[in-house]
Amino acid sequence: MKTGLFCNYENHHQDSRRAIFEQVALVRQAEKLGFEEAWITEHHFNEVNLSSSILLLMAHLAGVTSTIKLGTAAVLLPFHNPIRVAEDIATLDNLCNGRLLFGVAKGGPFPQHNKHFATPMGESRAMMLEALALIQKLLYETDVSFNGQYYQCDRLTIHPKPLQPEIPVYIATGDDAGIEFAAKNSFALMGGPPFALERLKKTLDSYRALNSSGGEKFVLARFFYVGKTYDEAVSEALPFIRYFSQKMTANSAQVMQNSSSGHKQFERTNICFDEDYLLENSIIGDVATCRDKIKKFQDELDLGTIALKPSSYSLPKNLESLQRYNQEVQNYV
Question: Is 53 helix (H, G, I), strand (E, B) or coil?
Answer without folding.
Answer: coil
